[in-house]
Amino acid sequence: MQLSVAIATYNEEDNIKNCLDSVSSWVKEIVIVDGGSDDKTLDIAQKYNAKIIKTDNPPNFHINKQKAINACTGDWILQLDADEVVTKELKEEILGVISQQLTANSQQLANGYWIPRKNYFLGTFLKKGGQYPDYTLRLYRNGKGRLPAKSVHEQAEVEGNTDYLHHPLLHYSYPNFAHYLDHFNRYTSIMATELEEKKVSLGIFSFLKFMIIYPKLWFLSTFIRHKGFVDGIPGFTFSLFSALRFPASYIKYWEKYHNKKSPND
User: Fold this and answer.
1) Where are the domains of the chain?
2) How far apart (Å, rounded) are the C-alpha atoms in residues 77 and 67?
């Protein structure tokens, strides 16, 4: 069976080479949907004979990921982010489960596989805080998996049975804290738009939920219940700022609402 890799990119010159090095020698094709990169991302991708589709860069990156998935021709699709690396062990496991599909009976067939992921943050891979194993549904039979593209934190939807792989995908998401803050700003803006689309009321109850209850519960869950404290300063920082996404997105939503209501104030 043949395997395609689907990737969406935008200014990923610092990451794309390592990602493509980890898959180029053993997959049928690499499909990249690029949102208008103005760095060397596409120059690097062309050296790997990637199929490149140029388009715009929507706020929700999953839209371009789905375009890449739609363009794949292999029997199976591995959807990657440009800052992810497939280890040798994960490669062998992926090839193994795909090969097993040829001999398995119909009751044993899986149309998708969850892959554990290690997340790199402040110079280390987080081991706790709900960040490992960070299972993500990334390997699926062509035509059976898709991204709804409604939320930046959504998982793929797979028709039929799914199963789990054991070897992790390496996710070099945030090389430094400044990079993390850039993403924090972008993601909270998207969350604010989602609140607007859901027409969340701006009353006292929503204020208490987003400003106090949600961040408090999230921090206690990741740092205490899921033992984020084991990761030291990186674990504390992740728990703190991921909790702060709730008040940050709520404040942006409040700001947009009042700017629309009083444009001349």
Assistant:
1) 3-174, 177-261
2) 13
Structure tokens at 87: 């280890």
Q: How far is C-alpha 77 from the chain's CA centre?
A: 16
SS3 173: strand
Domain 3-174 classified CATH 3.30.565.10? no
pLDDT in tens, 16-53: 999 999 999 999 999 999 999 999 999 999 999 999 99
Dihedral of CA atoms 168, 169, 175, 177 in degrees, nearest 10, equals -70
| Cα–Cα nearest to 192, from 242, 254, 234 | 254
Q: Which residue has the tokens 């790997």?
A: 48
Looking at residue 246, its amino acid is: F
C-alpha–C-alpha distance, residues 145 and 68, integer Å: 12
Place of tokens 């200014």: 11
CA distance 50 to 34: 11
Tokens (6 digits) for 198: 């859901």
Token pair 């490149």 is found at 52
Task: Name the E strands within 96-239.
Answer: 112-115, 117-121, 124-125, 136-141, 145-146, 157-158, 162-164, 169-174
| Helix count and strand count (H, E) for the chain | 8, 13
- Burial of 76: CB neighbours in 10 Å, binned 0-12, 13-18, 19+: buried
Which pair of tokens denotes residue 261? 């209501």
Look at residue 114 and give its three-state secondary structure: strand
Rg (C-alpha) for the chain, rounded Å, is: 20
Question: What is the spatial distance between Cα 128 and Cα 222, in angstroms, rounded to a whole number?
Answer: 8
- Which candidate, 48, 55, 98, places its Cα nearest to that of 77? 98
- Write the pLDDT tens digit of every residue in 48-70: 999 999 999 998 899 999 999 99
Nearest-angstrom CA–CA distance, 162 and 77? 14
